[in-house]
Design a protein that fits this description.
314 residues
Amino acid sequence: MPLAYYIHQLSPFIVRFGDHFGLRWYGFAYVMAFLCGYALYQHIARRGYGEMPPEKVADFITLAALFGVVLGGRLGWVFFYGFDIIRTHPLDAFMLWKGGMASHGGILGLVVFTFVYARWQGYSWPGVGDNLVVVAPIGLFFGRLANFINGELWGRVIDPAHAPAWAMQFPKELEGTQPDLVALGYAHDPLALNALSRLLPLRHPSQLYEAALEGVVLFTILWVVRTRMKAPVGMLTGIFMIGYAGLRILGEQFREPDAALTWGLTRGQFLSLFMIGIGAAFVAYSLVTRRYQLPGMRPAPAAVPENPVEPAAR
């Protein structure tokens, strides 16, 4: 008899070399986010949005990925979710291969990085951010898909009497309690899958909800504002902050809390409240300054004559 609901059986490895080593979907998600983010930012820059010329985009995206997303995401996870590591094993804070990345930390890392980069290159900080936030949901989308493939950050338990057809069961929540059964389940053993279906609760696939909200919905809003509306510098950054925070708060309603609640809010919802405040500050800045950077406004390089006249000999 076929199972009524899908049991998550996806491997975190694209190619495995041994028990714990191989090419992982999580790493591939970062690569895809980098490549797609670069291509889209390049496209936006070529259309004349923002101060940064297209030839600077590759270096900027590379540095943003390393020092903003990766370093910020890891340190954010350590401070927001795994602070005990600093007390017990402080060097583990920099061991990315052990897992643990926080999207709030990655966003905060990008805020700090873009500020430093803009000052270094002589660009407007909100202007650099306005283009970056348009491509940021692509990384969020791939990251949430990787969470789903890994079978982590699963959703809240659903009452079977009211479970939607897309409810799922995640064997990874049994790891450490019944490892042999979990291993058999991932090996697609029919007997193990039937046993797992009786043990595991039904849950929301909240990773997919968040991929749709933080990735698809947020990207669509920002893309329309960037390309179809006349928004002052800083407005897009503010919309991203507020939009991400609001959609994250909504998505967390379906996600199993992965840390202690604060005032009845999950850790993700609580941190998102601060993002709303930051976003409101950017929106206020954009409305006060009313400075625009639209296609055709980027200063053109000085023209060089095709056949320059040689100065007379002296």
